[in-house]
Amino acid sequence: MDTKSLLKLRGFILALQFCLFSVSSFFLASCSQEEEINSASVILKSGSAYTAPGEEVSPGGKINIGVLASGSGSPLTYLRIERITGNDTTVQLDKGIYAGNEGFDADFSFPKGQAASEVWRVLVMNADRDTATASIVVRKGAGTSYGPIRHYADLVLGMQQNFTSPSYLDADLGLVYDDVSVAGKESTIDIVPYFYFTSGLPSPSLTCPGYTSVVGYYPLINNWPEKNSTLFDYNTSDNDLISPAAFDAAVNDSLLVTGYNPTKVSGNCKYAYSGKVIPFKTQQGKYGLLKIVLADEHEQGTMLLEIKIQQ
Predict the structure, then answer these.
(1) What is the pTM of this model?
(2) Other C-beta atoms within 10 Å of 271: how many?
(3) I need a labelling partner for 73 at 20 to 30 A (CA). Which of 4, 40, 64, 125 fits?
(4) Cβ neighbours around 264 below 10 Å, total
(5) CA–CA distance, 134 with 145 (Å, rounded to integer)
């Protein structure tokens, strides 16, 4: 073989070696990236404050679940809590979260249903999309444990352009505040009303300080140090599943907890017309019912409400 051919062969071999080296480096890098995926973890708290695995709880009684979770170096971004009875799974809580190196530590309370046995499953996911689950089985106890309620009538709230009536409602205590008197009480506010047109229809509506669009109607809320998120069961309201007469007859929290459908909730409730009954759940975990006695259909108007809420 002549010198020219040898030089060409040598160049080909060097080029082939370079390609092999590049491909190997790519796969090594890929493997390294896969190995760097952080694993999420979750455990349920134990102790007298929390429901134990296999514990019997009467219908209406509280199931207390404490969650400790970590993304193991990757922030936690998602939390879901499910109630499983037989082949039926009901999502009780579904929310985005952010928990960095400090991890996630929170307590939740839910009412026991009528099923003989319920599996309560907690799922977390981190930014690497790795998930972890933990669960307990809760059994049905004897009798019922429905609790007492508070009842507040004749609550008047002003819409966003009504500057004479208070607009901010503390649902737990039945207190209302205006822009001035709410100072220092921001962390207690659960509900605010507003009016707008949606899909061509007039819509007296209810929302909460934690709902994103609320600051478009109440700019002051943008500067609040704490903003509660209240969830409204719009499906029950839209379909009139609870009548005003049923609201009036409620003397304990049975209807408050059983009438709330956690799978169809939002921090905003449209079409809150006169005569509607709306189940809700506060950020503090209390279940309640709102009865719209009268709702004006303009932004300078008012809403007249009745509320029943767990003590």
Answers:
(1) 0.82
(2) 18
(3) 64
(4) 15
(5) 26
**Cα separation of 243 and 131, whole Å?**
41
Q: Which amino acid is at 200?
A: G
Closest CA to 79 of 115, 107, 101: 107
Ordered structural domains, the chain, with CATH = 41-140 (2.60.40.10), 149-310 (no CATH)
CA distance 229 to 259: 19
Of 84, 77, 53, 76, whose CA–CA distance to 66 is shortest?
53
Mean pLDDT in order along the chain per 10 residues (311 residues): 50 50 49 70 97 97 97 95 95 94 94 96 97 98 96 98 98 98 98 97 98 97 97 97 98 96 96 98 96 98 98 95
**Which amino acid, one-letter code, is at 262?**
P
Query: Which tokens is 30 given?
Result: 């890929």
| pLDDT tens digits for range 291-308 | 999 999 999 999 999 999
Take residue 84 and report the two structure tokens written for it.
């499983």
**Do the beta carbons of residue 77 and residue 69 sit within 8 Å?**
no
HSE (CB half, 13 Å, CA atoms) of 304? Answer: 7
Q: What is the pLDDT of residues 143-156, one digit of tens each?
A: 999 999 999 999 99
Helix, strand, coil proportions of the chain in percent (round to 5)? 20, 40, 40
